[in-house]
């Protein structure tokens, strides 16, 4: 394993120190239990939006803390959900009296840990609501799985709900909006090479020189199918089709297309893939109204990509366009 | 023999060593069908448990298990953190203020632990989770009449067999379920760690006889 | 080689198509010869700032085109400088009557191709000035080398000069400012693993599992020294010391610290390294006044990082803070 | 024999084939001490030259070389693009409007090419660049009196020896200079391509005799 680290057991804490130094105008890192909070938290009278999950997906979630997006992020160890303490500490720091919305990616660990924290907070009379995001169409949502995973759609959800909270929507309205986003967003990812978790020291799965893993998660979990490597056309089509079928997205739909690098795929390739996805959508009469391209929901240095489609309407588009000021997403005044 | 708070604390410390010894094995099992952190998560958690026991000495078996529960919940994360945390918490609650444990209390505690895991995780037998180890452990314990050591030995044997039974299963809960059919032919890491913990507790009880 | 591409010979053209679709509000891609230009070019009365170089360093330079930064970028093939035609085409498209400043990284190929284009433009009576950036302290600037390479400092130069052009500085003032930036910026990079150029198909150099390459360029050129891998503390110190000695940077200096990922190093590690660099600078009484952290000057999927230090004064800080709206850097109104 | 525009165009086409055949070798040489693009850059450029010759038929040797020059400049990029481009441009200019080339014109053209490369790239003999192949080529051509084919054969032999002489050198120009001492023990890719081009031209001239 080759990494720019000192000790696998202190990677997250050391990285958070650097994050704070790099963005002290935006965020503060509270140590023990570790929480990244907006520098001006709590914002009185605003619904606080809190997310979190294992580390190794940067810039999600710490790089998404700031005005117009998250009030706090709870970073767990690499690829391991945070503990209830962290979530509780986050809730305490950011609760501005208008309630707290927890955005949880649908993994057993994340759900259980956030659930525990929510129970504890409610016992303290803090109004807490939870939204679980499960946009990964690679996983069948059935009795036979833990349900779909939360992947790329999480960033879109956090941006849109963050904007709603910022404009003053109350907790019930934020929850309703979040449910609307979750209902209209779908993702699918693939990998050409596995990431290496610092405390494991070797790649999370082994792929042959001619293989790719399709339907991959963001934690180095193997995907649903191992296939021969394909070219960009084939890869993009294979990601897009199940997404389109699932919702389904149909002719005339207005969408946000999010082309995400898993970390190790360079922008040169990512833009190439994005161009293909745009063409395939145009061919079907689906209107790409907004786009996001880059490494936003990563899996350490994993080579690969994911596509996410969100169905837009005027309100969602307006909330997407609303000002945001975080380390990773920044626009508007 | 009786089983006091000190005995339980000693058993937990011994279990922490077992977890550390098997860290890499559990990582490897989880790497195959999960995300490779189970061994590291438990090591971190049981390390913290040992530290907690170094600085406070709870005076009943139930209080020891409650400290274990709270520490695991706040340090393990992942699926295993809340699940093991709830298991130890329910066991602690079931034991109440009892100063010493006999075989009946031990059986009650394991039963409560299983109840907690199922309540939190909603897994059934055959879903390829720690429930597949814990459920036969409870059944074996219930069927045994004998000393604490004998009850725990039966539970450990049940857990061991139950863990082994997860190998051919297709996972229906937890991260391994994403793999579908590809999750078969692998030992479930959580079932394995449950079997390891119970085996360690049984050894501690046996040594204390 | 595993990449999300179709055909190595069309990678750049296909990627540019995706870039344009992703950022049509900011830029237009002119094909044959390929140039990325500001969507509103030419801007009348403003000095036009043009850069370019081989592809594979994204987001540099195409992702830096937009108000407050570049008017045009000329993307060559992967790791190969663009041709004079491209530079000429860029000059033609963006010349707003106030002259054109060419920002050229100091590589023989880049210098010769831009030089040829500048000669041709001058023959057409376009006022053209060239600034060559050579911030890489890994290369000795002597008679025995092609001179220092242009690396991370390029992004800082483009931001600052772009802001000056945007506020209305004339060509001579832009050149003087650019010279000041070049005089005060230094960089050094390292790699843990080599990139793979699509038309080559195998890694640009071979590194053992226990080796790192220090003093690396951004084109997969091997570095000056191959050393045993070190931890993050050692790596950061080894990059920072030659930078500090070279200018030199001394106690009380105000600086911008740019911690750059070469592409394959994830943000988790990059922030960790950034934190170390901040601490080492604080230890020496050097004041980090601004920072940039992320993959901005990359070498495809190369794992590794570089550090860049720029000495700041009030004017440079103000120009750094000035609004910018590009795919990769965006702040201010 | 005389050397007409058609002969020169045919020689350039043959050279394009040689470049394509040696693409991987040149990439490999450049990968060792540069950035691995030299073979691909030249292949792209000479491909474009062939296309240009397919669509226009310049009527003097100088006009052919001028077309080659312009095409290389606008398609090769990197260091080799402007350097080879200038070389062919200066050669073209030196030939003026001559309809046929004799040995003296060929020598003048090679000399002008060297002058162009040195003017653009400022490299001297021993810097481990294409100049190390071109300079001995010029000297060999100047020292030879004979047919066009003989002059080119001498130049090619000189270039070949000159290219070989770059192996032990430490580079002082171009990308290889960044490597310092580590650039020694490698053949310079540009010197190698120069030798390949001259050898191909010599073969074409010899075949045309
Ligand atoms: N719903 C559940 N009920 C019971 N046990 C579960 C459940 N989900 C997962 N597990 C257990 O947790 C183990 C994985 O734990 P761990 O790797 O620490 O968490 P994570 O999957 O979050 O990385 C599995 O091997 C399984 O035994
Ligand atoms: N200043 C120079 N003068 C003459 N030849 C040079 C000079 N710099 C580089 N070269 C030649 O160019 C070759 C490299 O060409 P190429 O790989 O196409 O360009 P780049 O170095 O830009 O990738 C070198 O092998 C060398 O022979
Ligand atoms: Mg996990
Ligand atoms: Mg796990
Ligand atoms: Mg090159
Ligand atoms: Mg080269």
UniProtKB/TrEMBL annotation, chains A, C:
GO terms for molecular function: ATP binding; glycerone kinase activity. This is Dihydroxyacetone kinase subunit DhaK. Gene3D superfamilies: Dihydroxyacetone kinase, domain 1, Dihydroxyacetone kinase, domain 2. Keywords: ATP-binding, Kinase, Nucleotide-binding, Transferase. Pfam families: Dak1. GO terms for cellular component: cytosol. Residues 7-331 form the DhaK domain. One of its GO terms (biological process) is glycerol catabolic process.
TrEMBL record, chains B, D:
Keywords: Kinase, Transferase. GO terms for biological process: glycerol catabolic process. SUPFAM superfamilies: DhaL-like. GO terms for cellular component: cytosol. Residues 6-203 form the DhaL domain. GO terms for molecular function: glycerone kinase activity. It comes from the Bacteria. NCBIfam families: dha_L_ycgS. This is Dihydroxyacetone kinase subunit L.
